[in-house]
Automatic annotation (TrEMBL):
Keyword terms, alphabetized: Cell membrane, Membrane, Transmembrane, Transmembrane helix
Subcellular location: Cell membrane
Membrane topology, record value: Multi-pass membrane protein
Endpoints of the signal sequence: none
Ranges annotated as spanning the membrane: 20-39, 59-79, 86-107
Name assigned to this protein: Putative 5xTM membrane YitT family protein
GO cellular component: plasma membrane
Length: 139
């Protein structure tokens, strides 16, 4: 019985590490898509990210500031309705995405063609979600 508990604890630990590695990689891919394709070509994404892009454009403040501030109400709702582990993972993702957008900001855009920027930026922002939902799952 004790052996099964150790194995179960080890599986949960591995699952947690994989989850946060996936979130970290996903924020890098998403930040690259935003700062290398969408933002320089004045293309907005949907949801909080799109509102953050507009706020950054209008105010001149960094995108990461708006990503963090505009997600606070959703963190509160998530804590109330989903739970603490969801909020911790969300905070990790928001902080990483905000940080990576600052890292990619000084890099010149990859393309100046709006159509290509929309295609590649949209794909890069969605590719990691497919990876997260289909790959690296524990059996």
């Amino acid at each position: 019985m004790l052996e099964n508990q150790k194995l179960s604890h080890k599986r949960r630990y591995i699952h947690c590490i994989r989850k946060y590695v996936q979130l970290f990689i996903g924020t890098i891919i998403t930040a690259a898509g935003l700062e290398l394709f969408l933002v320089p070509n004045n293309i907005i994404d949907g949801g909080v990210v799109g509102i953050s892009i507009m706020g950054s454009y209008l105010s001149g403040l960094p995108l990461g500031v708006f990503l963090t501030v505009l997600n606070i109400p959703f963190l509160c709702l998530g804590y109330r309705h989903i739970g603490k582990s969801f909020v911790i993972a969300s905070i990790f993702s928001i902080v990483c995405l905000s940080g990576w957008t600052s890292v990619f900001l000084p890099i010149k855009e990859v393309t100046e063609t709006p159509f290509l920027a929309a295609v590649f930026g949209g794909y890069s922002n969605r590719a990691w979600r497919r990876l997260y939902n289909q790959e690296w799952r524990l059996p």
